[in-house]
Amino acid sequence: MKRISKLSSGLYIFLCFAFFYLPILVTVIFSFNSSKSLTHFTGFSMRWYGELIQSSEIMSAVYVSLTIAVLATIISTALGTFTAIGLSKCRKVLREWTLNINNIPMMIPDIVMAVGLMILFSAASINKGYMTMLLAHICFCTPYVITSVYPKVRELDINIANAAMDLGATPWQALWKVIIPMIKPGIYAGVLLAFTMSIDDFVISYFVSGNGVKNISIVVYNMTKRTNPTMNALSTLLIGAIILITVIVNLAPRFKKTRFSKHLSKIAGVLGIILLISVLIFSYNTANLQNTLKVYNAGEYIEEALIDKFEEETGCKVIYETFDSNESMYTKINSGEEYDIIIPSDYMIERLIKEERIQPIDWERLENASNLMESILDKEYDPGNKYSVPYFWGSVGILYDKTKVDKADLKDGWDLLMNPKYKGNLYMYDSERDSFMIAMKALGLSLNTDKPEEIDRAYEWLLEQNRIMSPVYAGDDVIDNMISGNKALAVVYSGDAAYIITENPNLEYFEPHQGTNLWYDGMVITKNCKKTDLAHKFIDFFLDEKNALTNTQAVGYSSCITSAYEEMQKTDYEGVSAYTPRQGNEKDEVFKYQSQKTKEYCATLWTKIKAEGVR
Amino acid sequence: MRFYKNFILPYLVWAGLLIVIPLIMILIYAFTADGNSVLTVSFTFDNFKNILSSAYISVFWTSLKIGIITVLICLVLGYLMAYLIAQFSEKVQTILILLVTIPMWINMLLRTYAWISILSDNGLLNSLLTFLGLEPMSLMYTDFAVILGLVCDFLPFMIIPIHTSLSKMDKSLIEASYDLGANKFQTFKRVIFKLSIPGVVNGIIMVFLLSISSFVIPKLLGGGNYMMVGNLIESQFISVGDWNFGSAISFVLAAIMLVAIKITEKFDKTDE
């Protein structure tokens, strides 16, 4: 009987650990995969470790995470320990108040603390970056230090410190030689907690950082949209480091009498100084904005090697940041972030022009301007392309699996997405503007309507579709899922469709006959950009025929450069219709900038549709 | 000893600036309209009225539901785990607790990311099912996936405090209970569980706090149609740009959390 219970308890503990370590194991295994897939192991390779070392983005993120964690731990431990000692000696009312305030960051959700700090920094117009992230980390680490040190201080016999002072010690000596050594266990616990909290933090860092300063979590968050085993390689290295440290710490007592431990404090001191110097250099580097260009683009929308090439050619530094939607880009610049070049979509360009946030392009300075394709210039959002230079363009359409979808059903156009035959077998795009576009086009309306009754009809259409079809509103993960052939239908951008079709030839793309959205993304120079010369060079760089070809090959979207566009149709995307979006259909429209009222109205309805899906 | 009293001053200034003021600013934003500039203050209740519309209420309801389910699962799994660990010798306990802690040091996003490759439609789990000749299941973008992710990430926060209070327990009390004629079940209910309540309370608060406000796990494992309060706050601040409404939601979330903490702590005190 006893044996059985022992066996089952052992089994339970084993299963629990299996549950904890399964994702970690998967991460480690797939870091050695030779292909990009995270689900099928195709062979052993160290490829992703090579890419990891070469990725300056990840490397600087590791650097930011580590230095922030170390600095925040040191500062919050010092601050917290002093405060804990002070707390035990001050008046009761003051003590209780301080402890109550100190509890707040631990008792309210971190996202609330994060938005509070974000509002504070933007109200005080402090530029978001390394400093704000460090301040925020100290802010949430210190309470944990105080709660682990304070109980130890209270256990302390006051008379011991008094005795030291009676024997002639100054208060500082008594602190260093008597009090601190006695509360050491509490301080160690505080250090460990602070370091863990800081290095693992995502939410607070996400809201308070900016200007290209990212820690590991933020980079991972931006990367999760497309599978990228480089993250697994990084993760494996981190796991290795953690296991190594744990082993060393646990074996440390055995080394106590060796010479190594005698020099431990000296080694720690030297390491601390090195760290401090490197932090200073880093902050100097980021502060030195003389010859840098800040570029803000959508995620996964550039060949990053081209940025390196540009840096080499001009000797400048490019701070490259990405956004996940035009709206989040707008919110960011509205909160005071400054960029030199932004690459938004048509309707957002229109808005930026109206709000005088961008400056006219000096076409004289663009040597490669003649490479641009005529047919995509001079559109309504920016007549004469006074303010923007086209970057990529495309349409929105339906990607379908030829083996699963009946060809006769295609004549329904957008209503194909309402066909119960394909219930649960479809991805919608998680974007309110694109989804409303589909509904409006299906109903024969203009996609730029601002009449509430028409928007309501579109809302009803989407709601009904949600009920009948139970679609998945996915983000960029659609790409991987469609390549694997998970569902029969998906709403996608033409460029993504082109890429997906080359990976899975069972798929085909079509633009519904009711009309669709044609879009153009363009490079614009912000009003506050002072390095206009460099900015024009950057734009011109992407108009170069060779660079444009490299870029469109990597991204898959339709190039605006005639030669690259034609070259792609002959090579990589031969016979892939998605690479050549429909032109000249009068039912196709370009988005216009929506009024704030319409936008908010649609946003509320969209939240309602999605919340409906949860039930 | 008066000397040390002043040690508290730097932190008072710090906490005032970086804890109290941000919260006050959330409050100001929550009760005003068009307040991206603080200069034009116009008092309003509209942000809170807006929350009461059915779509947003259901978001709160989903978060509460998911939070409570996660807490319950963590409580059952975590208590059993902590209890079983506490039965081992001290040396083994240290190792086991270390094994529970290690995953917490590994980036939470990376661990969640790994779940995607396990659960996705053509992921490892489904490959295994097909290999065994079973029907593959669609697991991603469901409540199940979200709760699984939450439990996996937050279970250690339940195990550790419970284990701490169990291992601190005076063993002679358990012996005394047996000596006085209580059976195993009675001893557990009246002695062991009662003495571990402080740990249970801590664990429940931690897990509830983390899961109700989480927005990364729902976004990654629940998909775009998964809305929890955290996602709502994120979208208001990052993509919609309505900081006033976002602040109002944050305020309500913080209030819910404080109420939940008070209720749980009361449970602790009445049992004493």
Q: CATH H-level name of chain B... which superfamily?
A: MetI-like
The parts of chain B where pLDDT drops under 50 for at least 5 residues are none
- Shape category of chain B: globular
Gyration radius of chain A, to the nearest Å? Answer: 29 Å
Number of strands of chain B: 0
Strand content of chain A: 5-15%
Quickly count the domains of chain B.
1
For the biggest sheet of chain A, the summary is:
11 strands, mixed
Overall 3D shape of chain A: globular
Helix content of chain A: 55-70%
**CATH first level of chain B:** Mainly Alpha
**Mean pLDDT across every amino acid position of chain B:** 85
The assigned CATH architecture of the largest domain in chain A is Orthogonal Bundle
Which keywords apply here?
heterodimer; A: 615 residues; alpha/beta; MetI-like fold; D-Maltodextrin-Binding Protein, domain 2; 11-stranded mixed β-sheet; 25 helices; B: 272 residues; mainly alpha; 14 helices; 0% strand
Give the arrangement of secondary structure elements.
The complex is a heterodimer of chains A (615) and B (272).
Chain A: H1 2-31, H2 47-54, H3 56-89, H4 92-107, H5 110-123, H6 130-155, H7 158-166, H8 171-182, H9 184-200, H10 203-208, H11 216-223, H12 230-255, H13 259-262, H14 264-287, E1 292-298, H15 304-314, E2 317-323, H16 326-334, E3 341-342, H17 346-354, E4 358-359, E5 389-401, E6 426-429, H18 432-442, H19 452-469, E7 472-474, H20 477-483, E8 489-493, H21 494-503, E9 507-510, E10 518-526, H22 532-543, H23 545-555, E11 558-559, H24 562-570, H25 596-614
Parallel strand pairs in A: 1-2, 1-3, 6-7, 6-8
Antiparallel strand pairs in A: 3-10, 4-10, 5-8, 5-9, 5-10, 5-11
Chain B: H1 2-5, H2 9-30, H3 46-51, H4 54-86, H5 90-105, H6 108-119, H7 124-131, H8 143-168, H9 171-179, H10 184-195, H11 197-212, H12 216-222, H13 229-240, H14 243-271
